[in-house]
């Protein structure tokens, strides 16, 4: 089981998604920024490190939004998605093909990695609830 973490980074009503480079596995699919937990790291530490490496930003990591296990043909991934905010820096495309800020309503315009589908469903339903209560 591979432990991975990712960040759900909000800016008002938009959240950040990153497009994988064409040459990587699942190339050009969209995902939440993050990566694999290394030995001796906490999940929060991994997330801060990955965002520094990939986006040149410093995160404040908040609560867990959800976690999901996904079986790819070649590996099983346990993904923990944290709420996070940018403490400092502006996201740079150091490793990604593109970075976008989208609303929940725009999710369907993008092709995401399979592991993210469950998360997107939860985002859609929570966002829909928020909208119907106001």
Please identify the top-level CATH class. Answer: Alpha Beta
Mean pLDDT: 93
Low-confidence stretches: none
Strand-pairing-aware structural class:
alpha+beta
Major beta-sheet overview:
7 strands, mixed
What percent strand? Answer: 35-45%
- Please report the distance between the alpha carbons of the first and last residues: 41 Å
Outline:
globular
Quickly count the domains.
Answer: 1
Gross CATH architecture: Alpha-Beta Complex
Number of strands: 7
Rg (C-alpha, Å): 14 Å
With helices defined by DSSP (H or I, 4 residues minimum), what is the helix count?
2
Q: Would you identify the CATH H-level superfamily?
A: Nucleoside Triphosphate Pyrophosphohydrolase
Structure, described:
Strands 1, 2, 3, 4, 5, 6 and 7 form a seven-stranded mixed sheet that branches. This protein is an alpha+beta fold. It has a single domain (2-133), classed as Nucleoside Triphosphate Pyrophosphohydrolase (Alpha-Beta Complex). 22% of the residues lie in helices and 40% in strands. The protein contains two helices and seven strands, in the order ββββαβββα.
Question: What can be said about this structure in brief?
Answer:
The protein is of the alpha+beta class. It has two helices and seven strands. The longest helix has 17 residues, at 117-133.
Architecture blueprint of SSEs:
Elements: E1 2-11, E2 14-19, E3 30-31, E4 34-36, H1 43-55, E5 58-71, E6 76-88, E7 98-102, H2 117-133
Parallel strand pairs: 1-6
Antiparallel strand pairs: 1-2, 1-4, 2-3, 2-7, 5-6
């Amino acid at each position: 089981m591979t432990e991975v973490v990712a960040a759900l980074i909000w800016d008002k009503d938009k959240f950040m998604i990153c497009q994988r480079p064409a040459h990587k596995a699942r190339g050009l699919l969209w995902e939440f920024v993050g990566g694999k937990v290394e030995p001796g790291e906490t999940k929060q530490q991994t997330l801060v490190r990955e965002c520094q490496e990939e986006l040149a930003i410093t995160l404040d990591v908040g609560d867990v939004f959800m976690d999901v296990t996904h079986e790819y043909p070649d590996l099983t991934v346990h993904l923990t998605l944290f709420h996070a905010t940018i403490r400092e820096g502006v996201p740079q495309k150091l490793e990604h093909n593109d970075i976008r800020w989208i609303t929940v309503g725009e999710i369907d315009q993008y092709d995401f990695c399979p592991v993210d589908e469950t998360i997107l469903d939860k985002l859609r339903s929570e966002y829909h609830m928020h909208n119907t209560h106001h």
